[in-house]
Amino acid sequence: MERPGGAMKRKHLLVLPAIALAALAVWRVRQHNAFSYAGTVEVTEVHLSSRLAAPLTALPFAEGDAVKAGDVVARLDAADLKLAAENAEKDFRRGRALHAKGSLSDEALDRLQFRRDDTAVRLAWSWVASPLTGTVVRRYREPGEWVTPGQKILTVADPAAPTVVVYVPAPVMARRAVGERVTVRCPDLDRSFDGRVVLIRNDAEFTPKNVQTRSERERLVFGIKVAIDNPGGLLKAGMSVDVEWAPRAVDPGR
Fold it and tell me: Higher pLDDT residue, 31 or 148?
């Protein structure tokens, strides 16, 4: 005959393993999250501007167009500089002939050469070339508009080599190494990318303000920069990603 309360004890024994399994699952999730740090995708961008005060005559690339390093992306009206360069070249040639006959001093010839070289350099400023291969992401001016030195004309970005900086506490930083492989997950794309640690900053800083919680912003952390493989250019600047390290060593806490 079964003693009173026996059924209840068996129920308790059945419940305990279930609780243990649930606790183990939570522990594993927490352990997994301990290796994950959030950041924002960044790409190399260059703002291209003029070194002359002149009207734009041509902007052959629109926003979204691909460009190669060395492509001329803007031309400026430089008719006056072209004329000056031609005259300077003629003056230098005449001066060189006179110098060969002894009718012109070395100093005078040097001045003519400097003027020729200076006008040639200024004439070359009448076109703007892209320093990198990438995509035109901003076009600030249109042909016919007057631009001044330093005024932005285009922005070119290189989406092929995105990076992300994540901020980790000192105990975690001490276990990381340049060259270490990581996984970069992008929730917006629901896929993962390969990454590699390229820089570990030596100076501690407070967590940047874009981190969500106040308690995390008040911690001293170290920045780790990760280069991301981006086949097809799927990752875009500003996307949120999570950098994850394989749990080969226990993360000492956050």
Answer: 148
Residues facing residue 88 across a β-bridge: none
Dihedral angle at the C-alpha atoms of 170, 207, 40, 212, nearest 10 degrees? 120
Range with the poorest average pLDDT among 2-11, 58-67, 93-102, 201-210 = 2-11
Distance CA 70, CA 133 (A): 8
Q: What angle do CA 68, 230, 190 make, to 5 degrees?
A: 140
Alpha-carbon gap, residue 53 to 75, rounded angstroms? 12
- What pLDDT digit, counting tens, does each position of 125-138 carry? 999 999 999 999 99
* CA-based nearest residue to 161, from 190, 124, 188, 195: 195
- Say if residues 227 and 195 touch (Cβ distance below 8 Å): yes
By C-alpha distance, which of 199, 192, 137, 126 is closest to 168?
A: 199
Q: Which of the residue ranges 57-61, 119-123, 232-236 would you say has the lowest mean pLDDT?
A: 232-236
For the entire predicted model, the pTM comes to 0.66
SS (H, E, C) the chain: CCCCCHHHHHHHHHHHHHHHHHHHHHHHHHHHHCCEEEEEEEEEEEEEECCCCEEEEECCCCCCCEECCCCEEEEECCHHHHHHHHHHHHHHHHHHHHHHCCCCCHHHHHHHHHHHHHHHHHHHCCEEECCCCEEEEEECCCCCCEECCCCEEEEEEEEEEEEEEEEECHHHHCCCCCCCEEEEEECCCCEEEEEEEEEECCCCEECCCCCCCHHHHCCEEEEEEEEECCHHHCCCCCCEEEEECCCCCCCCCC
